[in-house]
Amino acid sequence: MLHSVLSNLDALVSAIQTALYVDVIQPLLFKFGMMDYDEDTYDALYWVIIGVFEVIAMYAVLRPLEALRPAERWTDRKAVRADVIYTWVTKLGILNLLFFFALQPWFDHLQGWLHLHGIATLDLDRLWPGVTTQPLVAFALYVVVLDFAGYWYHRGQHRFGVWWELHAVHHSQRQMSLWCDDRNHVLDDLLQMAFFAVIALGVGVAPSQFVMLVAVSNLMQSVQHANIRLDYGRVLERLIVSPAFHRRHHAVGYGHEGTVYGCNFGVIFPWWDMMFRSASWDRTIEPTGIRDQIASAGQPARDYGDGFVGQHWLALQRIAKRLCARRDGGGASSGGAPAV
Amino acid sequence: MRNFRLFTMVRRARLCSGRVAKALAALPVLAFAFAATPAAAHNVIVLNSGEATLSLIDLATRQVVGTVPTGKEPHHLMVTPDNTSLIVADSVSNNLLFVDPKSGQPQRRVEGIEDPYQLGFSPDRKWFVTAGLRLDRVDIYRYDGRDVTLSTRLPLAVMPSHMAFTRDSKTVFVTLQVSGELAAIDLATGALRWKMKVGAVPAGLWMTPNDQYVLVGMTGADYVAVVDWRNQKIVKTIFTGKGAHNFRSLNDGRHVAVSNRVASTISIVDETTLTNVGDITGLMPGPDDMELSADNRYLWVTFRFARHVGVIDLTTRKLVQTIPVGRSPHGIYFFDRAPVTAPNGT
Asked: Which residues in chain A have Cβ-Cβ distances shorter than 8 Å to B25?
């Protein structure tokens, strides 16, 4: 049944991919002398279409749930608009395109250099020939490895000041919703892509599997950010990160405090939080955002921006301020936390 | 120092994983090592680059009878000179998978072949050459009839893709897709003899009778460039169709088929008059690699952008059947085929 559904969906995506490519994109590539990207573009298009389907499915399933069982009730949804833009920028593969042109050549050079110097990749899927070479087993293995890396990447975002300022774009959303996951600074996105690309290269993830891993991970993270009062129950909650678990991470003071405290960093699996004692199972709904977004005695509320451009620009300003303060021997902070 | 540590760690890990792999490989439970498919006498073997599998199609019934996983990003395949194995080049896995040329069942793997995108044997069977499209280099190996030993590693930017050999096995030509060049490499010394500009996205190569010219499929244009390689000069262009890509001899001593990946047509080029004598139209999108039946009647072709292979009846020049396969079908081969022998003997 599931196989049949997936197979039909795959056939549908492929049919759209072929039609769109042959009738629209390939003629443009040909006209503008970019046929050396013929195959790459065709392959990438599949994932762009998957991204669009993902957004449609996400909206169809999660939006009614948000209306039925909201974790928080809002008077208006204006703050969510910017996140919709972030989502489309990500799902339409615009960031991947940036990565492909800006960083991919460096990765190819790096890979060539490593091979020329006899430094081979680990190729985890070859660990147990016949078992780990099975596509599904290999996929599961890579999910675990990349999720472990993702956990530490996320901890890094909450540990280092400049990095935190980029990640603060994500945390500054006080109305978490199904659109919130992709709200990230473009530089942070590129950094994250480079980070995972290096790991994928190191452990030997096939490029096609890597894209699928990212797609699956993104889908699960969209669910986690939805404004739904939902946990997965005592057992499942400890296997997969739920909206309740991740909402706790976004809770001001309870889930994170800028760079000085944090819990529930897990991306797909909460195991790493359990293993490294950073898990919190408290399900109390608390306000989300960053502490200094709320005005306190003598301190006006900090503006993190309302739109895509403003949020990016303000992040760069905060970074500049932090770097200047460091140069001058002082400390700048955001989120009520000292610089690290 | 840091690099050295990283190097040591990676090597240790690799050695460790190698030992574990060997130990585990000995377990009887691994009898099902590769995805089992019924062994068939004569299968058409189609390489699905987009999902790293081989689709096996029964040549008689033209039905898909099995799927075999390969490595990461396989692109091209080539039969060994003694016809005992078909080599599948896994470019991202950096290895070669040898399969039975009749059934498509795996035989063995050869590791340590870096980024083998395209591959070929010299006519004298002494050299085995791989083009690394991703890593920008060409590796030349000595071939002893079973194993290959690296002879020369030649950095060659940008995007080396297809290749052709001269009849005397002294030179291999390689197209450079991004820089739009044709390169000539001396096989014995591994030295680059020359490079020349040929145009937008050169891909497939074909030697005309007596090695007079080398034909270059211009995927970024709509023609085949005729190169007088001795004088490094383009002497003619043969208009075929947008996205001229790859070649397959039609085994009549005179004609060669050219796939046009954008126009979605196949042109028949007369190698003696250097003219396009007809186009096969009504195909699915992205015709790429081709294979010819032993009776010279049916031309099989992979449709790169349609997840199908097609069968063309050359007597009517019509597409008579399409068969669904995997994502991005690229290379295609079957044992009972017309010889690929080019007019120059390669």
From this structure: 129-130
